[in-house]
Queue: 3 jobs
Job 1
Amino acid sequence: MTDLKLFNSLTRQIEPFVPVHAGEARVYSCGPTVYNYPHIGNMRAYVFADILGRTLSWKGYKLNHVINITDVGHLTDDGDAGEDKMEKMAAEKAQSIWDIAKHYTEAYWADVKALNIRQPAHWSVATDYIDDMIAFAESIAEKHCYELDSGLYFDVSTVEDYGRLAGRHEQDQLAEDAEAHMRIDPVKDKRNPADFAIWRKTPPGETRQMEWDSPWGKGAPGWHLECSVMGGKLLGFPFDIHTGGIDHREIHHPNEIAQNQAFCSCGGLSEATNSGAKIWMHNNFLVERSGKMSKSSGEFLRLQLLIDKGYHPLAYRMMCLQAHYRSELEFSWEGLDAALVRLKRMVMAVERVNTKALPAQLDVAAAVESRLMRFGEAVADDLNTSVALTLLEGTLDAQIGHATVLEMVREMDSVLGLNLLNLTRADLRIRPKAATITEAEIDDALDRRKEARATKDFATSDAIRDELAARGVEVMDGDPLGWEWKLG
């Protein structure tokens, strides 16, 4: 089996995956801040992390995957400015911050399930680790931190190579931040513009819903501290892979790395393990030109909106798989339509294999070995899912016998996660939320239309088609997939 190679954002190179602990893969993925519903761009990160985890499992590694839930500490500006996102939403909704966290965590988990993303070994909730965060901060405070009226700050000049993950050398990073600092200084008296809070004090006269006593006064942890603590606590430093969206590569992850270096008393980042993880991986953005993925826009693009419009959520997973995780993916309804059609074709191909015995080639073993080898090469090449999808489609069309095809589909789909052996055509026909007609009514109308067409009563046939169109049903005469109708 081809060795797995992955792109390391820290070194900007494709590198062979060599686990820290033989036979085991330890992975940490930055999870959501549960102050609002995740949009589909957010969910691309978890489809990517799922493909990574499935690939590691398929390669035979025992996977220990952690995804965190941030329920405290994430400010409205990632650079230590603004309000706590959770406190802000709780105030807007006039609800308990704990209720806000519970509601949006469950909404996120529902999207995870709908996208057929596997459960990690641990869902680590930030507020479960407050004591560990305080202990971590205490252990690095003397050498690496300083206290201001607003909190405890990490001095980035105390670690080597700060900002290397973002593609900038330390001095360049500090110079750029100093220039930005001249334009806006959100925190008075910081030593370096890039310094960041690892503990934020509750301002005098205020009371937060989430606050704890600490050596630096009552307050709450900083967002960056949480991930360092939970990653180290649950996986141990160094662990194998840290994942997240490409937006984390600029501020959040460089700050995590600085904390890890301080905690482990490590040197510079020429040695990747000094960062806390051997490999850092980032998926690129999902681009949506209308701006409807912004959560400030009201009804933004979340998975439930796609379902409400009649799209099965796995059509979005298919859309993600069609592009490499490191490339930008542009969202459009036309693109989602195409992804759904491709998924339908695969589901129908599986149904054909199930209902029609295929003649086997003379050398089935050689055909299977060749296809699985090429599939393995694709996913081992930095998770090249677009090529892997094409190989799966070719397998469904191959004349290599019923049982063999199904077993190969099961093998390949264990990595791609499209649930092909369980999905049916009926599953993929999602009724839009706005539809007022039932499927039973549609089926009855179509039966009457077939009878009319059989007797060449085209006037009645056209009238039934127009009646259905008026109620939002498009009759798909001549559809090569034989789908018959769709709701618009």
Note: The first helix runs from residue 40 to 58.
Job 2
Amino acid sequence: MAEMHTGVGRQRGALPWPRPRRIATVSVHTSPLHQPGTGDAGGMNVYILEVARRLAEAGVEVEIFTRATSGDLPQVVEIAPGVQVRHVTAGPLAGLTKEELPGQLCAFTAGVLRAEAARLPGHYDLIHSHYWLSGQVGWLARDRWGVPLVHTAHTLAKVKNAQLATGDRPEPKARLIGEEQVVAEADRLVANTRMEAHDLITRYHADPDRVDVVQPGVDLDRFCPAPGDRDAGRIAARRRLGLPTTGHQVAFVGRIQPLKAPDVLVRAAAALRERDATLADQLTVVIVGGPSGSGLDRPSALIELAASLGVADRVRFLPPQTGDDLPAVYRAADLVAVPSYNETFGLVALEAQACGTPVVAAAVGGLVTAVRDQVSGVLVDSHDPQDWARTLEHLLPDRAKRVALGRGAERHARDFSWNRTAAGLLAVYDATIAEHRARLAARLAADPALSCTW
């Protein structure tokens, strides 16, 4: 297992072959054009878009293949110089859940292969697939095009099932099998953290020599503290969002589903009322996002929960935020809560810290990397609302502690950037292409007759 996020290790200068010219990125079930926080759109969308932009700036063209879900968008959309999103028709334009998409993989793969067939041979130098559905497509395209496949899982079914939220549905066996196949077939696997790499190796029997760690980043220009006085910036952000300008605020940002566990925060607010009614009456819980996944079964469940616990007056619901409104959410909050049962990394935690806001997060998955316990935030070892209420009771009245954590959060976030992520991925791509071409050269040397087939 190699850690490549620093961009050092297998350096470009050691390779006799050029850097990839064009990358085919495959994202079947969600498009970088979708708004994160609703449906299946989340951190993976942000990752794909930000990385593609940085790769294009480094001179590598990126074409992103995703399933068409609307007739309003053209077949190809250029979202930045050198970055295109290609919409592939596979099944109805709307109405399919992520669980129904395996039945459309043949149609999607056909669309991807046809797009490449319309180009000159050798148009793409490498395929990078995201999530297991895309890995299935990338695996077949890799064999057809004769180029290497790099795969990023983003979430793993075996990990999710081992840490299942109460009332959530386990991932089906078909996904487990599909993930195992992709892990076995990919030329390289990119993990977001060492913990994810460990899961790939121990749970999926991945070859450690084919696993690289490249940490995600954050847009440090967009996500940053408000200029000038922090308190004034917090009040301005609250006014911008229509939130109370006084009292304490704890924000949750993400898809509303059992895996993300926003109910833990709502229950913690109710538990806090029992522990310290005065403090609880000064608290506003801000939930930013929309129903997703199994949360669509009861889209109003969180609202009903707040009412049943008697804290509906302390909970505010906002839709997913775009543009400068998302950084405003982080700046408005005294704390940002990430109570997920599992996170491969946790981009929300990183975005909040980049804005100088401490994070209270569950000590699971990539969150133990994204948050430095007692330096940039606090990690909670359980999902028990009483434990979360106790943490809030300790932090909210302690302004000095929150200020110190906020400064630590900003410093911690500076260690992450999308430029650094792109540099790490380029190192992986370089090494993968070099190994792929070395294998081809060895085969040709062993059997020169093969040269007529390439």
Note: The CA atoms of residues 148 and 436 lie 6 Å apart.
Job 3
Amino acid sequence: MNLDFTALVPSLPYILKGVVVTLEIVLVSGLLGFLFGILLALLKISRLQVLVLLADIYTSIFRGTPLILQLMLIYYGAPQIIGYEIEPYTAAVISFALNSAAYISEIIRAGILAVDKGQTEAAMALGIPYKSRMKDIILPQALKNILPALINEFITLTKESAIVSTIAVTDVMRRAYIVGGDKFRFLEPLMFAGLIYYCLVMALTLLGKIVERRMRQCD
């Protein structure tokens, strides 16, 4: 096995700079996906069947097609409609946010439905408006129950963010590939990129456990 990581050392700072790009994409798209996912979840439990149908169609499309296809459609296909090119970073954030929202909406919907119906009935008896009831009573309890599932979604998003290298976003994967092409040695930089993603996932997993433990202590 011909491995030589010493040749990779001068390029380590360059690859590590990609971590910032990766985290920015994950955090921004994850936050947008979470907010949009809440809206979709509320539509899915709405009494208006039209809204329920629209939300279900959206979810089925984004869950039923590959993320890389959605990324390509937004980056390469959208300019044909809007008339100008979208920056790679912007295309990555939009596609990841839209895709993540579809999955998160199902998680949140399940969390809302899992909340004891007595909570809703008690709030309605006290005359609490729907908006306040949902914001202050139902959603906080639902989010506490679905926290592990949300952490898993962010972990998945972190790993899948590597596909942005296909549209020339200089994330960890793209930089590792560039270093490999420059040195004509791809195994070492790609292995190092894999180690970076592994560390990011482990950090997210640990953070999720800490938050979950603290939330249980607050009960």
Note: The two ends are 54 Å apart (CA to CA).
